[in-house]
## 1
Amino acid sequence: MRDGTAHRRRTRMAGALLSALAVLTAATGCGGSAQSAESAKETSQSASATADRVEPLADPAKPQLPVTVSSSDGKRVTVRAADRIVPLSGSLSEIVFTLGLGDRVVARDITATFAQAEKLPVVTRNHDVSAESVLSLEPDLVLAETTTGPDEAMEQIRDAGVPVLVVDPALGLDDVGPRIQAVADALGVPADGKRLTLRSEDRIAAVRKAIPAREEHPRVAFLYLRGTASVYLIGGKGSGATSLLEAAGAVDAGAESGLEKDFSTITTEALAQAAPDAILVMTKGLESVGGIDGLVKIPGVAQTPAGMERRVVSIEDGVLLNYGPRTDEVLKSIVEQLYGDSQ
């Protein structure tokens, strides 16, 4: 495997594109026994779920075009119209809809799972873009991540004369504002970009301010699970979860234990070294292993403090690592599940 391909695969699992992995379970199924269903129910009842809707700005501005903006792939992109927008990640779709321009979106990436986008046609297969599907909708602007691919499909879209804006992936709280502003600038609504950035940052700050100070910070391991595909990974540096966990007053147990890779295969030794007090998972990932009952059967989990206490924080796949307008909701849910009545 060439270095570029390997890098793309790692990065997709690490930042904004990790949200795309929500789809794997939906595509392959999460079936389980009655006991598994009960365990999943236990998790959903104990979790404070994040509503799967976006909250558009009030009185959104109309795009003032044309504009020419810088793309993360080093190109200068001129946007002359934004009547038919195709965002190629759930995170970018979320930003467009929250800017109040969702009525201009004509398709969605498979990772856009929030309610307002669910009826739009999907233009990706698994995690890959279908150039034919995109071009059939005659878009006047495509929004992509640096990890969007395959490269051949993206070149085909560009060769057809469609402007493609590439945005850097989201890996932490510091990326919230720049990503919102990059999309807003390309859509000709820069002032609304500033307005949404301020709203998002203020809400994140409010959640952080409400977290009581603690002498000891809980150690939380981020596990990526897809039981239907026998994928069991623990997050390390670059997984995308560190910033959220630190904002919640916790320690990223995987990164702190010395895991240099963004994700590593779960082993008993790795879990023992991480010694998490709690485990952070995506909701569909937890369902795919049979809920908490199935999670503690993964070798090494039951021997951790988190496994012994069955202490699990579960967040919806399509929003956990987006680092966008709903990150305050994600952070609040993590805090509520992590600390509960002890706040």
## 2
Amino acid sequence: MEKRKLYDHFLEVQGHSIHYLSNTYENAVDTESTRPLLVFLHGFPENAHAWEGLIDHLPKRFDVVAPDLPGYYKSEPLSSIEDYSVPMLLTRIAAFVELVGRKRQVVLVGHDWGGAIAWPLAAFHSQLFSKLIIMNAAHPSTFTSLLKTSRTQRLKSQYIHQLIADDAHETLVQSDFSLLRNMLGDALFSSDKRYADTLLSGWKNSDTLRAMLNYYKNMPQAIPSTDADDNELAALRVPNIRIVIPTLVLWGKNDDAFDVSILDGLPNYVEELTFHQHNEATHWIHREQAQWAAGHINKFVV
């Protein structure tokens, strides 16, 4: 497998710089190209480099753009905590896609938090996208529904309370980011030192780490306690996020963050759904099973 050359670019969007990787040397995507353009949104606590292994397995006929989400790694932190609310992020990332896409139809790819953004982005800005690809990222509607009905899902989501705590930043730093390391697994830090170094560089930047945590602090739905009472659960409002563009969901079955039944309600919200599950992969399917994922992406995008 030949490693694909990716170039660093920076683009100002709504007054803040966003860093992104692209297969093109120029700072603008070719507007005349008929090649598919894939925009990749990474999750927590990763950065744009998380996609490199998967991109290496994709055909060279694909153009790729992978930003650091606003505030992550080399992307500039935003001005206020409110800027990390989902509606504000959707507006900013839609503007980014318009700038890099240059009127080309884009295939949107998201994992984890990138997927949590990609779902409503595709719903409310569907004119920007031809297709949607999701990897181990819960649909906002099925996630909230499951929080109301599944004690297992509530239990799996309790880690979020550690990330929204007032002392979350200090706790992560003082523990040498043990929670983040445990999420990603020890193997990453020994098997891919170059990528691990980019992660640690971002985490050790206080402004960046606070920005990353702000995504959780601005979650649209509060995470109820594991044994929440009826009143607490009744307060959860299930959003109506409907996807009208063709959608591919790739899922690692052994995901510690989600009850597998979170997938059951997807056909209620996605008009044209293709689904593939990998029985050995975990939440980090985009890295663990990059070749498998790239194969399904190639078939879906064609």
## 3
Amino acid sequence: MGSRRSDFVPRLARRHGRLLLAVPFALIAVVTVVDIVVPPEVHLGPFLIAAPAVTASFAGPRMTAFVGAVAVLAQSIVAVARTSFTDLNHTYQIVVLVLISIIVTFFSYLRERDESRVTRLRSIAHAAQSVVLRPLPQHAGPLHIASVYLAAEEEAQMGGDLYAAARTATGTRLLIGDARGKGLDAISEASLVLGAFRSARREQELPDLVGHLEAGVGSMEEATPAPEAPSGPDGPTDDTDEAFVTALVLDIPDDEPVVRLVNCGHPPPLIIRDGRVIPLDATDASPPLGLSDVLTPHVTVETFPFDTGDVLLLYTDGVIEARDRTRAFYPLTERLPTWAGDDPPTLLGHLRADLRTHAGGHLGDDAALVAVERLPPKR
């Protein structure tokens, strides 16, 4: 099925290209015929310039040059048919057509080179994403897991949002987070947190794991030299940006119907149970990762019921901060009961489509979603 689809896309692109090529050749034919039969005082030759110009917008430099050559040939035929090839008016038209064809061929070369560069960058970004942001397992012990990553930039594969899962001897560890800012800095922070999560010892308790993640974010601040504070009228001012990551760190035991979590300044997870949406609000949230030098670090592990049939939804603020045309935020807790009873992949499929529709097809920030369902114990 996948190979058929991958073969169909290039075939469709080639067919689309052939249809587009008919436009400049049809234009050359129509202009040539009409220019020959109209009265002598009417000159349609300048319209032939449009043929190579249009071709340069979708074809490569070779095809653009070929169309330009055909247009020059057509203009020469018109000159011979109407007066002579050496007629001053037609001579100027031919010279201008040759120059324009050379120019648009050069721009077609530049466009094709840039498109090739973008294609390579996309493949590199896709490879980096597969290494840094690995897909979550569909099943981990008694859990059924699904995840979705929605990049705000259409061409981006990954931003500052992150998620990961790891098995322990007694259950499953989950991580979801959102690195501050955008661009390469946010991706670097996200990769550091993911690397620290994967390198952590599986027997670590949640407070120790959070400390390990905190150290991972701190390593970036130590490696990055602090910029010199700008000077104001009253002396230096401290406008340096702090690198931090909001995160949820969860532990879901295989044999207990609970979920244990540490909330590091992240939006609270939601549990869908019997058609109701229950937010797991932390009574004592920890500061975001990377702010231990600004805020007093403390880690509080909180426990919530998570029984068979419950669906746990983890998300980043790109979901709840998505706006529609009226600037209204996405009503996540109001929409979720609509899909109560769906399994994680189906739930995220509905949620993804509804979120895109709400935001008009363009998100203002990256968004990550992870849905986890506890399945009945196997006999």
## 4
Amino acid sequence: MQMTRRTLGVAATAAAALSSLPAFGQGFKKTPLMIAHRGASGERPESTLLAFRQAIAEGADFIEPDLEMTKDGHLVVRHENEISQTTDVAKRPEFASRKTTKSVQGTPVTGWFTEDFTLAELKTIRCRERLPQLRPISAAYDGQEQIPTYQEVIDLAKSESARLGRPIGTYPELKHASHFAALGLPMEGRLADILKKNGLDSPTAPVFVQCFDVEPLKTFMKLSKAPRIQLVSPAGAPTDSKTSYMDMVTASGMKTIATYANGVGPDWSMVIPTVDGGLGPATSLVRDAHAAGLKVHPWTVRAENFFLPPKLRHGTDPAVHGDVDAVYHALYAAGIDGLFSDFPGLAAKARG
């Protein structure tokens, strides 16, 4: 992106206005925090500035960019380093030869990978909806957006914070950190540098850094004061640990997480399980996390029947929205500190 005097002036004004807002932890007027999962990804192609702007317009407190690396060392926003599912790269004849098969953290993957492109090359590719059959409204925006950098997402959050007079944070996820480290593209230092450059190297900054693995968070803790979140799943384990995710969220496991992270991000079903096709009572996860001094930010609530328990579905069409409000209300009642949603407007409405 070419920097002009005008954009420099706008950036300076936005930064000054943002600095006058209350510190993170004091400036967010409502809780739990509403975190837009890859932006308003149920309504616009995920991980685009279009999706992030829509999320902010709907009241999101945080916008979530997943971070991957380019060949020339830039942090870009994609959920996977393999980009054929969310871009038109497979239709670009000039990049046909880049298709390959790689092992990504132990899993063979075929496609086109961010680390095989420079930032300038990625900027020629256009984004598209990942789930067009479920989200045709979002698919109507295919081809309109480029892959953004993390810096561009921070710039958007700052400018919108200044315009709206409320703090809007970013919630970056370190994706495939060990994979990129093996390629000579370590992520943690680059992320720490960007946060410092933008005045976000603080425990009260409007940012959370998340990861499913353990060691990247421990490394990042030595480089930055920004808050950190350990992501966990109902199955499996971090690629760099033999401890399962379920063992990590026991009462004793939470105490271990608290030595290197400020919170835990579980799949929402780990807080409110599905019982007999409906929502069961809350587990002890929130209570145990809070006892260890950890925040709890579950992921990811989606509105379509396809993603909801059977008793919450409306009809048989997988794309139709079911009773997602029941999920929001159950999570809020469980005492969570924030939640991820593909539909931030619905989450905000349910929060009241």
